[in-house]
């Protein structure tokens, strides 16, 4: 993934205006920013971290190229000296992050950047853009995986994903969360995800006879054929499939599955299963699709619908019931001083942080604690070193390793969090060290504000 | 926009498996497909067509490159002869479409492709992906534009848009719908959209004193400065701005606006306005942001909040209240024969169609009719020729022309459709010719199904 997705201008303009102001002020001390989700949607009991690999690619490749420089000159906002300084721009900072596939909760930093201020500021928009989207999709996909109880799940969502990158990254995020594959061919080439697909209704309709369509398709793909049977009359089509399967067996062509894309999937799948079984086609699987999500999966599986696999599209790829996360990338420390927005009546948690997770003897999570990054707390630290001085600490894990890790993370959640409905929230506690720092910062901010006003009342700037 | 967004593999695998089946069957007669939205969300009284320019770019540049060919070979599903045929693949078809910025309604074809079957099939996934997303965003953005009543609107949504392309295309779609500009720098370079941005809370927080931050930023950007005033204490910050504005005037530095990003925007903006006005800063505008959408705009403006401009992000860029359209790209005709999925109990509308719109003497829309493309009906035909034999009929309109056209389209809607709440649906009627064709096709499909079964019962295939 490169091109405009790698452009240094793929950011909010204010990141660059702030950089210029910092440049003219000579401000470039070390800044710590953290990405976190403030509050989970009522429709989510947990979130699954995803997108780190793309963040690392972005940070590693970040440059202002000739076109970027030319635009900055032409737009009339920036000083020549500042623009020149961008020619050598590189990301030289440190990154610590939860590995992709980690389950996390509100206010927990998922990624922490420690870098010279201008670098840490510029990357805000794209880091949020990447972590927000893949985490959003992986989290909804994980709910589908839990609801599917081991049945096959295929991502069907390119067409209504929000653009090309959303289609490709949601194929990745859903595979990471446990989906078996995707329908999107380019996601197979980019990420090595298993790819699936056979025919649309248009294929049937373009033929004068449905049976001709089936027969010819089976001959074109003798090893793996799924026939779509709901174009005209689903049960009649299932009976045609039975007859066809018999005659194709003699030619060593196997029909592997039928797909149903409309109607009452529970009722129709039962009738189709009966027709197939009575026709000695017990080996033909039933695959279903059409506006499905985790609730539909739970309902169909709960009723015992004989469906072996599901195509899940739009609702997963747009996270339709919660299409964004309440996430932020916030300055936590600058030049060694903790920093924070002062929200009246709320305790904010500044400083460079770590999340510690405790588990019981069976490996089930029993509590998280937010702490200062150098505070010693019981439990496993969730943020791990990813980059130091702009370089990777280790080769990033492969997608299959991430997928296995995500599976173990989902398995290690308390049962309540695995339910689709709202569970008692899993809220991290706050360490004594962090609380103490927050209180001290609050007092410092109040003193600074008072000093600031006093300066103003005494003198002109 | 090129690279993977232009890959021929940015499609569902089934488009390519169908192509191979058509290739082995020698089927490549002319096919007509149409893109349309089946039903509008209850949260939308109209939709605004967008995305055609990107569709045309995609169709014009569509090629299977070496990497695509190599992957098709390696994946083991496709025949060498078929793969070889793709080296010369070009889109050679015709495109008719509603110009971008056209208001449209349920079941109205927005785009019609007439092309050799394999070409028309392959492009399905990306055409839907492009038209769906920009139409989704333009439609929500248009609601914000109507609610804003002429106040400035800036797209703030890159960070929580669903990936890079979503961020960039939502900047385009919202500008087309009437937004004044975007915060996304790369959208300015790609589409020439006016770009805005100054500072985040982190800029204030990185300084030991808020006033120092303001003063230094104003010196760094003496021509255009918007100061963010809600980091610590909004009213105290507004008073600092007044004092600072006085001292900066002597240096010919003007503060153009303050931004408020949190709190009760109505109450806070009134207090800030009063402080600014009392401090002889009536020329400093107030800009507001933070989880805004058309409902918040209507509410704030209805109450008379003294806000001059708004930053609209997440809720517009994800179309959060209706994050997808119930849209489809369906085969309507093959080899001169109308085609259709047979949904029991529903009349489907096959064939190559046109939409005719009638207006009253004031130019206000009074009714649309779906008709056969060659039927003569009263009103203006909405689908216009865009490509013939794979080539553009005329240079595409510029974004500013599209924006003006969209404005006139929104102004020409009946008042009810411009309300934010649900209006009486504007439903196109169906022409006698089209109804007649649908009935004939229904009878033909029934006859074909009966023939198909009869063939099966008599013989083996």
Account of the 3D structure:
The structure is a homodimer of 461-residue chains. By secondary structure, the first copy, chain A, is an alpha/beta fold. Chain A folds into two domains: 3-137 and 322-451, nicotinate phosphoribosyltransferase (Alpha-Beta Barrel); 149-317, Alpha-Beta Barrel (TIM Barrel), CATH 3.20.20. Chain A is 42% helix and 18% strand. In chain A, the strands form four sheets. A seven-stranded antiparallel β-sheet of chain A has the order 13-12-1-5-3-17-18. Chain A has a six-stranded parallel β-sheet with strand order 7-6-11-10-9-8. In chain A, strand 8, helix 11 (234-249) and strand 9 (257-260) form a beta-alpha-beta unit. The longest helix of chain A is centred in the C-terminal third of the chain and has 27 residues, at 432-458. The model of chain A has no long low-confidence stretch (mean pLDDT 95). Chains A and B meet through helix 1, helix 3, helix 6, helix 7 and helix 8 of A and helix 1, helix 3, helix 6, helix 7 and helix 8 of B.
């Amino acid at each position: 993934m490169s091109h405009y997705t790698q452009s240094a201008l793929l950011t909010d303009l204010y990141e660059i205006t702030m950089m210029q102001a910092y440049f003219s002020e000579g401000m470039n001390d070390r800044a710590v920013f953290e990405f976190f989700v403030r509050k989970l949607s009522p429709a989510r009991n947990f979130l699954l971290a995803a997108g780190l690999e793309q963040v690392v690619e972005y940070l590693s490749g970040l440059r202002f190229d000739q076109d970027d420089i030319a635009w900055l000159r032409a737009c009339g906002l920036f000083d020549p000296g500042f623009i020149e300084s961008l020619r050598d721009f590189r990301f030289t900072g440190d990154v610590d992050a939860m590995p992709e596939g980690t389950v996390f909760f509100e206010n927990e930093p998922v990624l922490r950047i420690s870098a010279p201020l201008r670098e840490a500021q510029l990357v805000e928009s794209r880091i949020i853009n990447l972590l927000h989207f893949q985490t959003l999709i992986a989290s909804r996909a994980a709910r589908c995986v839990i609801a599917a109880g081991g049945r096959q799940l295929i991502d069907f969502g390119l067409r209504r994903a929000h653009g090309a990158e959303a289609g490709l990254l949601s194929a990745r995020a859903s595979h990471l969360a446990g989906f078996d594959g995707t329908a999107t061919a380019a996601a197979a080439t980019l990420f090595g995800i298993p790819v699936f697909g056979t025919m649309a209704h248009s294929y049937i309709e373009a033929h004068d006879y449905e049976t001709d369509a089936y027969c010819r398709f089976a001959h074109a793909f003798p090893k793996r054929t799924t026939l779509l049977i709901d174009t005209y009359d689903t049960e009649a089509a299932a009976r045609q499939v039975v007859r066809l399967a018999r005659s194709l067996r003699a030619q060593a062509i196997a029909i592997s599955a039928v797909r149903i894309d409309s109607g009452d999937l529970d009722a129709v799948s039962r009738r189709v299963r009966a027709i197939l079984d009575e026709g000695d086609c017990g080996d033909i699987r039933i695959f279903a699709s059409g506006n499905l999500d985790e609730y539909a999966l739970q309902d169909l599986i709960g009723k015992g619908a004989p469906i072996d696999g599901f195509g899940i599209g739009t609702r997963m790829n747009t996270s339709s019931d919660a299409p964004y996360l309440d996430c932020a990338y916030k300055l936590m420390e600058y030049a060694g001083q903790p920093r924070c927005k002062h929200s009246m009546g709320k305790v904010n948690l500044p400083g460079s942080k770590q999340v510690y997770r405790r588990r019981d003897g069976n490996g089930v999570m029993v509590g998280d604690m937010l702490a200062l990054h150098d505070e010693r707390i019981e439990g496993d630290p969730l943020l791990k070193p990813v980059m130091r001085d702009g370089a990777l600490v280790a080769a990033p894990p492969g997608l299959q390793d991430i997928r296995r890790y995500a599976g173990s993370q989902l398995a290690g959640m308390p049962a309540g969090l695995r339910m689709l409905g709202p569970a008692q929230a899993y809220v991290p506690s706050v360490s004594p060290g962090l609380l103490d720092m927050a209180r001290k910062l609050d007092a410092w901010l109040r003193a600074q504000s008072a000093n600031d006003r006093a300066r103003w009342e005494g003198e002109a700037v």
